[in-house]
Specification:
Layout: H1 3-8, H2 16-28, H3 38-50, E1 61-68, H4 84-94, H5 98-106, E2 109-116, E3 127-129, H6 147-166, E4 171-177, H7 182-193, H8 197-200, H9 209-229, H10 236-243, H11 246-260, E5 265-267, H12 270-282, E6 290-292, H13 299-308, H14 324-328, H15 330-342, H16 346-349
Length: 354
């Protein structure tokens, strides 16, 4: 259907006039200029995203956990069994995962989107079944998916964003679930950055040295296979098809759609950042709508953030995924908007300026 292409057609740069108005308003508030640090940049960019100053408080957040399985699991890149993906989906739906607890604390809703779980999942509240296929193929030796399936994964992400926007949600958070999904994420980041997989690849769920070595070797083999095809840096859809994951593609489409709808989106860790890099490769303007929730300890996360030009809102040595770090950043984004909207000006407070 190529819904993502239609969404791309609606993506425009954020409103610079609104950003300029926010910058001017910041100077009138009862504080030294720049004293709120990154909160000021967040507030200013929210104005640009929404086209108004001050921006509406993004008080209705939704966390989307995109789930999929990976054929590269057969290379033993993780000791965790593949069945854990479906088991964790059940845990999300029961409200027992870390992201659920954080969501309750910050007042957010959680949905799980099955775009590629190997198991057949029963319908349940909070679950969106939007399966492209039952997991990817082994990216070390063959394309993870077809080009059509890659585009379809983006479309599934677009559909979710549009549905949530219609339901009134005004702040999105990306999350993920998929055993072995740090392998395709590191592969994408390594390929797009040009850095050696040894530099980009982390321990994911905490694998030992021998498993990490396997993981690095798998990614090197995958990139060598792709290099034999040609340069795919200007063809992110085919890159996704070759070495990506269905949930990574869905996150990419979700981010593109959020930008087209002028909804701010907080990205989580390394899997979400791989999706964000693909979205940026498709259209750099999309990144203007993205906030980096946190700095994951996965080395690829820092590299991806630097490539996107993003400063993380939090740095808590986390590497869980699920959208957990992004969820924790929700109150920061909301607070930034509220500060700009509700702080008194020097004139209103009767405070003399320096």
């Amino acid at each position: 259907m190529n819904l993502y292409k239609h969404a791309l057609g609606r993506v425009v740069p954020i409103d610079q006039n609104a950003v300029d108005s926010a910058l001017a308003r910041q100077l009138t508030l009862t504080k030294p200029p720049g004293s709120l640090g990154d909160l000021e940049e967040v507030a200013n960019r929210l104005c640009g995203i929404t086209g108004s100053c001050p921006a509406p408080i993004p008080d209705n957040p939704h966390i989307c956990v995109f789930a999929g399985d990976h054929g590269v699991h057969e290379e033993k890149v993780t000791p965790w069994p593949q069945e854990v993906t479906a088991q964790m989906v059940a845990n999300f739906l029961a409200g027992g995962a870390a992201v659920n607890v954080i969501a309750r604390q910050v007042g957010a809703r959680v949905s799980v989107i099955d775009v590629g779980v190997k198991a057949e999942l029963d319908r349940a509240p909070g679950l969106i079944i939007s399966k492209v296929k039952a997991g990817t193929k082994n990216l070390r030796v063959e394309p993870a998916m077809s080009n059509f399936e890659a585009r379809e994964s983006l479309d599934r992400g677009v559909e979710v964003a549009e549905m949530l926007h219609e339901a009134g949600y005004n702040l999105f958070v990306t999350g993920d679930m998929g055993i072995a999904n740090t392998t395709p994420s590191a592969a994408i980041i390594s390929y797009l950055s040009g850095l050696d997989p040894e530099v980009v690849t982390g321990r994911g769920t905490g694998v030992d040295d021998s498993t990490l070595a396997i993981k690095v070797k798998v990614i090197k083999d995958a990139i060598s296979r792709v290099n034999a095809i040609g340069n795919l840096k200007d063809n992110p859809i085919e890159l996704l098809a070759q070495i990506g994951g269905l949930e990574i593609g869905a996150i990419c489409g979700f981010i593109i759609s959020a930008a087209s709808l002028k909804v701010p989106v907080i990205v989580d860790g390394v899997i979400s950042l791989a999706g964000a890099l693909l979205a940026n490769a498709i259209s750099p303007v999309v990144s203007e709508y993205v906030f980096a929730g946190h700095l994951s300890v996965e080395p690829g996360a820092k590299i991806a953030l630097e490539m996107l030009g993003k400063r993380p809102l939090l740095s808590l040595d986390m590497r869980l995924g699920e959208g957990s770090g992004g969820a924790l950043a929700i109150p920061i984004v909301q607070t930034a908007a509220r500060l700009l909207a509700e702080m008194a000006s020097f004139e209103e407070a009767g405070v003399e300026e320096a």
